[in-house]
Amino acid sequence: MGNAVSRIGRLVMQGVLDAAAWDEGLAAIVDTVRADHLVAILPQDQDMDDPYPRVTPLAWGSGVAEESIKALAAYPADVAVLSRLLPKGRMVAQDEAVPLAVLCRLAVFEGAIRPMGGHHAAVACTTSGGFVAACRSRSGRPFSDAEKAVLTHLLPALTSALSLKRHIRLLEDRVTTLEATLDELSTAVIFLDAHRQVLHANQAGEQVLAHSGKLLTQPAILWGAGDIENQRLARIIDESSGAITLIRRKTSRPLAVRAVRMPAMGDRAISTFGATATILFMDDPDRPVPAGISGLCRAFGLTPRETDIIVLLVAGEDPAEIAAKLGISLGNVRGHLNRIFSKTATGSQAQLVALCLSAVH
Asked: Which residues contact residue 126 at a Cβ distance below 8 angstroms, ignoring those fewer than 6 apart?
């Protein structure tokens, strides 16, 4: 039995990143202690204005409706009460820790626990404040001491794996949100590792990589050899000074490139996307202008150069940054802006941007 329990523990921990191992490990727990189902409740990050953290319910096994599991999340205060009553680190019979008279007074009992039909349960509080319960809905006998001992032995691995899976899910949600935000930018944003391999690019970045000619000489890798502009790009990445540099292309206007070193933690750069050395910001003057802004510029009779300036201004660039990206002087940019103000009957950059945004939306 000892070897079997250890194997289950290894499967559960492996299941943090391996869905098949996770399913096999939970199924083995249910089978080993002859439970009908497992229920686990983990508190989420607590809101400062909410005294009770939200909870994430999870169930495994038979005899439990999905709506009953989801209902557990509706009673965070009761879950907090139950967690305080349960022992940490060892599984005990439910009625030893929470007498039925006490349990019946909690709304979560009628709203979620009772509909799950658990006549007997072995329960314990997790280190993070939730609880784990192994339940029997059809068997006529409570869990034996040996079965509770098996569950107690597996409890650290199970609660650690649950906590890690929850944190991974939260990180994945944040990465998804970040990726969606980056995809809304008109500026190309490309994350590179220490070997100049592309770890992630937003939609504008993917477009630049797909049409950048010899700047992309192998799939997903930016090289700095065999071409003068590639060598300049490699130097920009190595220096990562944040300065804007123009990189010439054979068939298109130059790219305005800025390379920024990721903030380091120890000797490694850390980001949401992993160990990243550099972020490249690239502005492509040949990228399609948003339809609303394009139509507005045509309506006011603006030149292609004035349209370029407006697009960069709407993207949040100041006149000095626009000058650097377009390879013209700051005075030249200001001259263009004055002519744009005159043509559009606006008196400031703020009014001009507001006019353009109204055309987009």
From this structure: 40, 42, 83, 88, 132, 155, 159, 162, 163
Q: Supply 189's token pair.
A: 């944003």
In terms of Cα–Cα distance, which of 227, 222, 217, 223 is closest to 205?
222
Q: Does residue 259 sit in helix, strand or coil?
A: strand
From CA 46, how far away is CA 196, in angstroms rounded?
A: 39
C-alpha dihedral, 302 to 255 to 263 to 193, nearest 10°: 140
Q: What is the per-residue pLDDT across 276-289, written as a single tens digit (0 to 9) for each?
A: 578 988 887 777 76
Two tokens at 29?
A: 């727990």
Distance of CA 105 to the CA centre of its chain: 39
pLDDT (tens digit per residue) in 105-114: 888 888 888 7
Taking a C-beta distance cutoff of 8 angstroms, is the pair 229, 247 a contact?
A: yes
Looking at residue 355, its pLDDT comes to: 85
Residues facing residue 190 across a β-bridge: 201, 280
Mean pLDDT of 247-260: 80
CB of 125 closer than 8 Å to CB of 88: yes
- CA separation, residue 160 to residues 12, 72, 163, 237, 266 (Å): 9, 21, 5, 40, 27
Q: Is the pLDDT of residue 86 over 50?
A: yes
**Domains identified in the chain and CATH numbers:** 2-176 (3.30.450.270), 185-283 (3.30.450.20), 291-360 (1.10.10.10)
Alpha helix positions (H), the chain: 2-14, 19-32, 66-72, 76-85, 94-97, 100-104, 107-108, 145-183, 203-210, 228-239, 291-299, 304-314, 319-326, 330-344, 349-360
Lowest mean pLDDT among 85-94, 116-125, 263-272, 293-302: 263-272
| Cβ–Cβ under 8 Å, residues 236 and 259 | yes
Q: What is the CA radius of gyration of the chain?
A: 30
Mean pLDDT, residues 327-333 taken together:
87
